[in-house]
Amino acid sequence: MLTTTELIGGYSRIERQTFNEFSRTKPAANNVLLSVLEEEILELPTKFGEERYVNVHPDFNAIFTSNPIEYAGVYRPQDALLDRLIGIYMEFYDFETEVEIVMAHTNIPGKMAERVVKVVRGLRELENVGGNGIEKPGTRACIMIAQGLEVLNRYENEDIERICADVLTSKVRGPADYEELQSKIEEVVAVSGKGIKVRASESSGGEGEVQQVPVGN
Questions:
Q1: Residue 36: CB partners within 8 Å, gap ≥ 6?
Q2: Cα 183 from Cα 91, distance rounded (Å)
């Protein structure tokens, strides 16, 4: 969150000038930023006779992050503020980056992290996902699924399907959509591990925790 000191002093530490998820704040509360970004002046509430305006440091800069307007608890930012910002649309991370993020948040084997990411990315690419019924799952879903598998300590298809369904329930709007989601999960999980099942071995540590076993064995 931005502070008066940061506006005046213009700190170079970028993390101290990041307004995270600013669209969760009511638009009226962001009005103070209009003069900061346009005239480089901060207007302060003061007593009668006190200096009311403060010049913003010339090196001051800020990064505003926000979720899509479709998310719950998100307000549509006022156009006056958006006109003073440069918009950068962030797509989903690439495959390798998502795998690295999952592995950084869990201790599941690398091969299993790759498979979790493949499942989630596969769901994103399916027809009708991202429409009115089922929202596209993000990287957080990958992490939560991987954490569930880590706790369960089993990695077979039915385990992945069950945890995926539990994690992604919040992405659907009703029972019919949930049934469709389950069907899509089964489809993507089958493709991601076609011809194999993945299970935890009795050994511990490293890649040895995962064995690829032909289906039917």
A1: 7, 42, 56, 60
A2: 26
Pairing status of strand 41-43 against strand 53-55: antiparallel
Q: What is the pTM of this model?
A: 0.66
SS (H, E, C) the chain: CCCHHHHHHCCCCHHHHEECCHHHCCHHHHCHHHHHHHCCEEECCCCCCCCCEEECCCCCCCEECCCCCCCCCCCCCCHHHHCCCCCCCCCCCCHHHHHHHHHHHCCCCHHHHHHHHHHHHHHHHCCCECCCCECCCCHHHHHHHHHHHHHHCCCCHHHHHHHHHHHHHHHECCHHHHHHHHHHHHHHHHHHCCCEEEEECCCCCHHHHEEEEECCC
pLDDT tens column, 95-144: 999 999 999 999 998 999 999 999 999 988 876 665 556 778 889 999 99
- Residue 189 phi, psi dihedral angles, 5° rounding: -65, -40
Task: Report the amino acid identity of residue 174.
Answer: G
Q: Where are the domains of the chain?
A: 4-82, 95-214
Does residue 55 contact residue 40 with C-beta atoms inside 8 Å?
A: yes
